[in-house]
């Protein structure tokens, strides 16, 4: 039985961490399976975006410390994806985290690797590595300051404390907070708003937004122009104006 489930609803892949007996802690099997799930999402042209959720009451407790203690920490990362097979994985399609329980240490870092985040009121986030004389080495120290005010990110990094979903939402880390048991439902609603748009334009917009901090305004604008030129050669580029003129919803093909 796989420790990562892969289901499809329309054009959305629903990927679930499925190792609840270990609080979905990352071992080599989970890291490999999660990378394979993302590979499947990326390679399937019928899928336009994904949701990353979980089975059990915990989203992810981070690294499996039994594996670390046994000297198998290297197996918790993959060559392309890094920790959990995801934190360094290059992607083109949007991925929404659906968090219905605690996501701490590497669990928070997996959440931060996603593009958008929906969390229930029983979710919690934090990087408690300093409590064990460790550092958050899978993106937490780089990505938290991008989604939280610097002082709050520093507080989490130095104290190892967690914040609840309401606090994370208040500071902009979470897109939506909902009642427990509804995170996948709400993530699917968010996915539907994205799916209504031209998928190639969505992917280009995602790419440009992620690259923006490393570019000057002039570099970013020139790169956006190149993206427009690529889109101009697609079927969907013609479909958008045509649908507007004909007063009907566009029918996107992703081509």
Quickly describe the structure.
The protein has 255 residues and is α/β, with parallel strands linked by helices. The protein contains ten helices and eleven strands. β4 and β5 form a beta hairpin.
How would you describe the overall organization of this protein?
The protein has 255 residues and is of the alpha/beta class. It has two domains: 192 residues, 2-enoyl-CoA Hydratase, Chain A, domain 1 (Alpha-Beta Complex); 47 residues, Lyase 2-enoyl-coa Hydratase, Chain  A, domain 2 (Orthogonal Bundle). The protein has ten helices and eleven strands. The strands form three sheets. A six-stranded mixed β-sheet has the order 1-2-3-6-8-11, with helices on both faces. The protein has a three-stranded mixed β-sheet with strand order 7-9-10. A hairpin with a 2-residue loop joins strand 1 and strand 2. The radius of gyration is 19 Å and the shape is globular. 40% of the residues are buried. The model has no long low-confidence stretch (mean pLDDT 96).
CATH topology call of the largest domain: 2-enoyl-CoA Hydratase, Chain A, domain 1
Shape: globular
- Beta strand %: 15-25%
Secondary-structure element order, N to C: EEHEHEEEEHEEHHEHEHHHH
Q: What's the level 1 CATH class of the largest domain?
A: Alpha Beta
How many strands, which pairing sense, and closed or not: the largest β-sheet?
6 strands, mixed
Mean pLDDT: 96
Number of strands: 11
Count of DSSP H/I helices:
10
CATH level-two architecture of the largest domain: Alpha-Beta Complex
- Rg, Å, rounded: 19 Å
Characterize the quaternary organization of these chains: single chain
Decide which structural class fits the backbone: alpha/beta
Helix content: 40-55%
By CATH, the superfamily of the largest domain comes out as 2-enoyl-CoA Hydratase, Chain A, domain 1
């Amino acid at each position: 039985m796989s420790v990562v489930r892969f289901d499809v609803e329309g054009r959305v892949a629903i990927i679930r961490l499925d190792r609840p007996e270990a609080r979905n802690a990352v071992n080599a099997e989970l890291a490999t399976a999660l990378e394979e799930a993302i590979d499947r999402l990326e390679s399937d042209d019928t899928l336009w975006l994904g949701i990353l959720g979980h089975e059990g009451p915990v989203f992810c407790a981070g690294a499996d410390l039994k594996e670390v203690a046994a000297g198998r920490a290297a197996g918790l990362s993959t060559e392309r994806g890094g920790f959990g097979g995801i934190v360094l994985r290059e992607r083109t399609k949007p991925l929404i985290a659906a968090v219905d329980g605690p996501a701490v240490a590497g669990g928070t870092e997996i959440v931060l690797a996603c593009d958008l985040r929906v969390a229930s009121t029983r979710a919690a986030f934090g990087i408690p590595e300093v409590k064990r004389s460790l550092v958050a080495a899978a993106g937490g120290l780089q990505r938290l300051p991008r989604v939280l005010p610097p002082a709050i990110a520093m507080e989490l990094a130095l104290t190892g404390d967690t914040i609840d979903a309401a606090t994370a939402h208040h500071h902009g880390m979470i897109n939506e907070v909902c009642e427990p048991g509804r995170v996948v439902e709400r993530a699917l609603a968010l996915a539907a708003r994205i799916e209504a748009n031209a998928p190639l334009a969505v992917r280009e917009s995602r790419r440009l937004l992620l690259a923006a901090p490393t570019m000057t305004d002039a570099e970013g604008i020139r790169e956006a122009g190149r993206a427009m030129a690529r889109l101009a050669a697609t079927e969907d580029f013609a479909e958008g104006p045509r649908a507007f003129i004909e007063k009907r919803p566009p029918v996107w093909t992703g081509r």
